[in-house]
Amino acid sequence: MPDNSHSVKQLSVQNLSVRFPTVRGTVCAVNGVSFELSQGASLGIVGESGSGKSVTARTLMNLLPRSAEVSGGVEFEGADVRRLARERVKHFWGVKMAMIFQDPMTSLNPVKKCGTQISETLRYHLKRDRKTARHEGIDLLNLVGIPEPKKRFDQYPHELSGGLRQRVVIAMALACDPSLLIADEPTTAVDVTVQKHLLDLLDRLRKERGMSLILITHDLGVARRRCDEIAVMYAGRIVERGKPEDLFEDPRHPYTDALLRSMPRLNTPIHSRLEAIGGPPPELINPTEQCSFAPRCTLAQADCLQSVPQLSGVIGMREIACFYPANTKRGRRALAKNRARGKTAAGLQMSARRHTSG
Amino acid sequence: MAGSGDGSLRSEGDMLLTVRHLSVEFPVGRKRLLYALSGVSFDVAEGETLGIVGESGCGKSTLAKSIIRLNQIKSGSIEYQGRNLATLRGDELRRVRPDLQMIFQDPISSLNPRRKIRNVIAEGLAIWGDRQGVWARNHVEELMVSVGIDPKLGDRRAHQFSGGQCQRIGIARALLLDPKVLICDEPVSALDVSVQAQVLNLLEDMKIRYGLTLLFISHDLCVVRNIADRIMVMYLGKVCEIGDAKAIFEHPKHPYTRALLAAIPEPAPTVEVAEGDISGELPSPIDPPQGCRFNTRCPRATEICFIEEPLITQLGDQDHYLACHNPVIS
């Protein structure tokens, strides 16, 4: 993996917050997210539905609805992305920064040929003529490993399988040779064998082109193998960030810890009981000033309910937003205290969970 | 792989459900047929959980639907308690239906959005008509409690619940008529990891509490590994490998099973990661390959695989059955 201290900083997100006013109150989708990405690196953003990972990506890509209230700064290769958005700059998104989405069927236009959709990008952004765009389009299909690219170029999306469609989407995103690719759950809609092919492809392209990658996924296993660094999100905040091996082998945030424990694994015995995360999902509408995981956390103490822990630690190594990190002395003491009391400070019954971190 | 024959049927023991040579074909116009299932044979003992894995399009869901007779069966038999479900009609079929219930992948769309969930769960009682009144109301509430839904929320509708809660409601509905067999078609695929764990635990609890036999369909091998006693691997409407879960995961013999185990993000230690790189696309079930159906993508395919279809045979005397001409013997 690249050494962060020497490589060039490419993307810097500072204290990004996104709010959506709704009739039921303001939805705080992203609450003060900060991260940096260096040229050629890959960052995995992991979290469950509603954790704000997709909204973060869409903010970078300027794809939020008008009603969204955004604050904070996004800097990409020296340019202020939010200013570019205000000025409605044309040839930035799709050229410097590109994105691929979860469901290839909905991100492709069903009434246009695959080739037309790829060459459209080339003709609009790079002003290629029809003939050059066709040649380059076929080259791109070849690059993403589509067999018989010439034939596929003139086919419609419904004529392709799910894996091939996602490859077409990747080809579209790569058309203008972006320096950052954001992949939002790129393999959720496909089978495991296809998933492996697609992730191998993204890996290869990233290395060949020196492209940076933000891989958004709910599957911790996917992020583990493919990213230099992983950020775990919960309720719109990054709760833990670090190298995959550290994060998986020695999780510090109680949420990461609980998430890993709740996953079924190949090496556990059959019918072993999974440790589900108790308590209610996070409140995103008008949240209270507390650690958002506290109501479900087995380590929660009184001060977790009074203020929001900030992300701290060594940048590039390991950062945690928790007062009582799991697998530390402090965390173990908090757990022992809650066990003795029978419930956590937030009122979660301890007896329901037989064995947890600490 | 992708073999035929009933070699996968166990000789000893009483089976609750025995499927023999089941074939399902769908007409797709111009007199062509889509071969969804071709000669699938397997059996399930009482109280057992059979995990069914395979890529999309391999016939997992068609199999589930065929067992509860939601689609036409071309040939073959499904024996359940001395009756052949494949040929039952009318009232006889109606009487056996409560015994076989199903839960579906998308928990929200499988509940009627316009009805109160209390009535969604209780619909089976209304249909049967012989169990009504106070007893029925108590029974519904009892079930709601056992799946972890507060009975006070019974007057709400599906959209007021989260995905995990909707799946619990779906499970309660399936359990209402006291089924023997519960068919779960990708029950946790649409759920988040933490909710997935809750639903899997719930299914295990319900299995023990109500004495269920589960058919558990999933594309997630880790989930299947956790819940299943036996595993059946399917490919393009055929059975590749079936047997004890431990045997399948620790000593996979079929090249396709090995490919699946190698392709998951954290591959199984028993296989090489490179084995997950099976090339090409799933062939069309309208015109499946001759011989072994996996021959277009199999790294071990030889001449015979293109001519002759492998039969399912037992490996020694273990609970491990395989359909392959060139199995991986390690």
CATH topology of the domain at 15-88 and 219-322 in chain B: Rossmann fold
Strand content of chain B: 15-25%
Helix and strand element order of chain B = EEEHEEHEHHHEHEHEEHHHEE
Portion of residues in beta strands of chain A equals 15-25%
Instruction: Measure the end-to-end span of chain A.
Output: 31 Å
Radius of gyration of chain B: 20 Å
Number of H- or I-type helical stretches of chain B: 10
Query: Order of strands side by side in the largest beta sheet of chain B?
Result: 6-7-8-3-9-10-12-11
Task: Assign the structural class of chain B, choosing from mainly alpha, mainly beta, alpha/beta, alpha+beta, or little secondary structure.
Answer: alpha/beta
The count of strands of chain A amounts to 12
Structural class of chain A: alpha/beta
Shape, per Cα inertia axes of chain A = globular
CATH superfamily of the domain at 15-88 and 219-322 in chain B: P-loop containing nucleotide triphosphate hydrolases
How many separate helices of chain A?
A: 12
Overall shape of chain B:
globular
Largest interface: A-B, 39 and 40 residues
Helix content of chain A: 25-40%
- Low-pLDDT runs of 5+ residues of chain A are 1-6, 352-358
CATH level-1 class of the domain at 15-88 and 219-322 in chain B: Alpha Beta
| Distance between the amino and carboxyl termini of chain B | 18 Å
Q: Profile the largest sheet of chain B.
A: 8 strands, mixed
